[in-house]
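Hi C.,

You asked whether I'd gotten around to modeling the 315-residue construct. I have! Everything is below, sequence then structure, no commentary in between.
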Amino acid sequence: MDVLAEALRVSGARGALGVVLKAGGSWGLWLDSSPAAALHVVSRGTMWLHVPGGKPLEVQAGDAVLLAPGTAHGIAGGTRTAMGSCDREATAQALTDGTALHLGSAPAETEVLVLRYEQDPEVSTPVFTSLVGPVHVTSRENTRLSMVVSLLTAELADPQTGTTAAVNSIVDLLLVQFVRVWLARHPESHSGSWLGALRDPVVRDALERLHARPEHPWTTESLATATAVSRTTLSRRFRSALGQTPGAYLTQWRMDLASVRLRDTDEPVESISGAVGYASPHAFSRAFRRARGAPPGEYRVRVRAEAGAWPRLLP
């Protein structure tokens, strides 16, 4: 079980190309906070990232920078450039016809690929929120990421059959590379961070087992036995890494799985309750109401009505 891959799959983490920016002269763009994580890849020239309370960050050609959801920020051609608001009409047009969004004056000296990553709002596993502060990766620091960026740039420069599918896959691969970089940079960071918890071999082993068999009647003692540590050690390290007990985490994961199934499938509640480890629909309904504020049937009706454009994640 690759616990990161499973968490990304269930959380519906998906990437998409926002727009290609081509800028020259004096230019700047302010981007309001968004529920999606933002990734800026500089394929040519230099960009400066501005985050409130921080110093401007220079991002050069071949570099990329990832910002956590809800991070308002600006991108510009300089450290003191005035930044205007996003022209939503021009951006929508660029997205529709696949053309670049031009800023500043011609000729363009800088090219930036603006991407975004969204997470299913019904899933509470905090993958993206672990990425505190801008994560800046240079082309010299990570050769794999540099290769992925080069592949993405080449696909966009010369669109062919299947380019849309290729770009979507490359964008997802970029996220995995950024997570790897983050883990490598924070080898001792466990406390309160889901990604950081993966650095602790005991906690990671426990998470892999919980994710692989959420329907199993796990107890802290049986999970400790499976991971070859004492119950006291598992409880201490799990709480230190994630701020909750193994049992609380398992309940949260089960509710995430159930929420997605209720919204995206027509499975009866009885079937879903067994699939996520509850012996009876009544026990499942009681636990689900505590976690989501509504019984499963009522939740299914409401969340489907609110789902809007979010895609069905399960067949």
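If it helps when you're writing up: The CA atoms of residues 56 and 157 lie 29 Å apart.

Thanks,
B.
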